[in-house]
Amino acid sequence: MHHHFHSYYLALDAAAAADVAQCLYPEWRNAVEKPFLWLGDLHPYLFTNLLRSFLDDQDSSSQEDDGDGGGDFLEYDAAAVREFHHRPWHVATAWRSPSRALTTRADQIECGLRLMAPALAARARHAQAKLARSVGAEWGSGEGVKAAVGEAMAEAMEEMVGVVVDANRLRRSVLADVLSVTTVYQAALFFEAVAQFLVGFRDLKLLKEFEDCEKAIN
């Protein structure tokens, strides 16, 4: 799964270099997917939020265990068996008691995203604003306006290609960081959750309910 995402984002880089507008405004994405898109693909916050959901679930389980008494371990075992009855025990309990290194690294990844994601979004806004100023300044200048507008467009598109490529690099970095700090079974369950999320976008019943919703999404 990690190799698939890595290859996918490299391919998306190549697609952006060929036609960045197609990546930024993908017509092939359905109505459920589009609210989750950020600079051409899934927002990297999705990956950290999924990671945090595993950690928070275990924190909640630990708090319940602390207050319930002596039969907690057997109760936890029974719950795990019900939830993961088709899986080996070491997979079913992979996220139980995550290491301090994992929780610390999760905090660091989130901190990095809070710095880098807004910076990339600001670069995109700056490129668009610069394009608008350049086109506005040249529009009434008479001769040579077509060439000037074309030059401004080319410069803006070049910057947006760089923004999309850096956004994909950030997404790849988050996934690689998660993989580097988790055990093989934790990573497998994490990537399974990412895959299930992506498959959920294609749920026809959910898509129909979303499209039939009367409330507009801003």
TrEMBL record:
Stored Pfam families: DOG1
Domain of life: Eukaryota
Residue ranges annotated for the DOG1 domain, each copy included: 1-211
PANTHER family: DOG1 DOMAIN-CONTAINING PROTEIN, PROTEIN INAPERTURATE POLLEN1
This protein's name: DOG1 domain-containing protein
